[in-house]
Specification:
Radius of gyration: 25 Å
CATH architecture of the largest domain: Alpha-Beta Complex
Number of strands: 22
CATH superfamily of the largest domain: Creatinase/methionine aminopeptidase superfamily
Shape: elongated
Number of domains: 2
Oligomer: single chain
CATH class of the largest domain: Alpha Beta
CATH topology of the largest domain: Creatine Amidinohydrolase
């Protein structure tokens, strides 16, 4: 195979493949050898000093993140982490890998360099990711190779041929892949990788908070647009489609969800937009979110009133909800147990007689996933720390009548809590 270099950065292989810091597994029968037993090593292009400087502390993918994950894995008694496509893989490498039936897996030993195992046809995509600026080799496998044997071999090599006793696997790894890895590493007990990575991912860096702030500002602009729309006579589905278009137009690369719950549908917290026609006097719950090109998520809920006719009892209910949301945000500060945020909202709602109608937790963490740790719920005594970023979204739902929810993303900072969503939380009347 002919190999040439291009601009001292890229390795171009005849046949159109592009790779950086790559291994390519030699062709072999299914179940073929691991890379250490017969792979062809491509010339390695190491990260330059300038590239390392570009991954400084303010980068979304700092160069020390892999080392911190290794240390955490070792502290948890794990021999390594095995991470397939998803938020954990992107968090550590910057690679937004497609979830395919072909195995992509980061092999991160607790002691030793990592390797990103990818199908041969995904080598160009992996090589174009931030992973190439990190101390990770990209290892390609061909259709007739056994990637699970390859992963097992790489991990055993890191243990000098020893048998791993425990590994952390991605929480959202496909069951069939977890089973294949269990067969390839029969001595290794599998535990969720979140036991190691959850505490790391919970505390966002300054760069991550900035990315979440940009996502929040973009979703605020969508709500601002909606405030100028006329909704009466339109279906929830029609409004939801317009919102989805606006989410993309305002800087998101993907729409994660659009909830438009009008009238009685607003009493279902996760209502899917329906053909129901929005009527004058409806309360409408609009919960929307997406993912930006940086990979970070937005999530914001506002409740609107269509026209001037306020449903009976709704104004009082909303006033309690508004007070509860303000109270929950106000208690955010370092050292406060996460469950205190839930209690601040729930106690007020319960005291007003609506406790049984607040049917979900007060919030969830947000970052590379729209729902991640920490969970803002009773029983979570984890102390808040600077960088923890989560939703504060109490809701009250009267089945068959209406519902209301207010949601902002809040980050814990040294002096308290900072809302990333700036849009006001008052009940907004829309044109009837």
């Amino acid at each position: 195979m002919e190999i040439t270099t291009f601009y001292d950065q890229w390795v171009i292989l005849t046949g159109g493949m592009v790779a950086i810091n790559c291994w390519l597994v030699t062709p072999g029968p299914f179940g073929g050898p691991a890379v250490s037993e017969g792979a062809t090593r491509l010339p390695v292009v190491t990260a330059t000093d300038a590239a390392e400087e570009s991954c400084a502390a303010e980068s979304l993918y700092p160069v020390d993140r892999l080392a911190r994950a290794r240390t955490a894995a070792a502290g948890a008694g794990l021999d390594g982490l095995l991470l397939t496509p998803g938020a954990d893989l992107r968090y550590l490498t910057g690679y937004d890998a497609p979830p395919l039936e072909r195995l992509t897996c980061l092999v991160l030993p607790s002691d030793g360099p990592g390797a990103l195992v990818v199908p041969e046809l995904e080598l160009p995509r992996a090589a174009a990711s931030p992973a190439t600026d990190l101390a990770v080799d990209i290892v390609g496998w061909r259709e007739t190779d056994d990637p699970f044997a390859l992963v097992a071999g790489l991990l055993r090599d890191a243990l000098d041929g020893g048998k791993p006793a425990a590994v952390g696997i991605a929480d959202r790894m496909w069951a069939v892949q977890a089973m294949r890895l269990a067969a390839a590493l029969p001595s290794a007990r599998q535990v969720p990788a979140s036991t190691v990575l959850g505490p790391l991912r919970m505390r966002k860096s300054a760069a991550e908070v900035d990315a979440l702030r940009r996502a929040a500002t973009a979703i605020d602009r969508v709500h601002e647009q909606l405030r100028g729309w006329r909704l009466v006579g339109r279906t929830e589905l029609e409004v939801a489609r317009d919102i989805a278009d606006a989410i993309l137009a305002e800087g998101h690369s993907r729409v994660n969800f659009v909830i438009v719950g009008s009238g009685p549908n607003g009493a279902s917290p996760h209502h899917e937009a329906s053909p129901r026609v929005i009527e004058h006097g409806d309360a409408v719950v609009v919960d929307i979110g997406g993912t930006t090109a940086e990979g970070y998520c937005s999530d914001s809920t506002r409740t609107y009133l269509v026209g001037d006719d306020v449903p009976t009892g709704f104004a009082d209910l909303y006033a309690v909800l508004h007070e509860a949301q303000l109270a929950a945000c106000a208690v955010v500060q370092p050292g406060v147990p996460v469950e205190t945020v839930d209690a601040a909202a729930r106690d007020l709602i319960t005291a007003a007689g609506y406790g049984e109608l607040f049917v979900h937790r007060t919030g969830h963490g947000i970052g590379l996933e729209e729902h991640e740790q920490p969970w803002v719920v009773a029983g979570n005594a984890e102390p808040l720390a600077p960088g923890m970023t989560f939703s504060v979204e109490p809701g009250i739902y009267l089945p068959g009548r209406y519902g209301a929810r207010i949601e902002d993303i809040v980050v814990c900072i040294e002096t308290g809590g900072e809302r990333l969503n700036a849009l006001d939380r008052n009940l907004v009347p829309l044109e009837g």
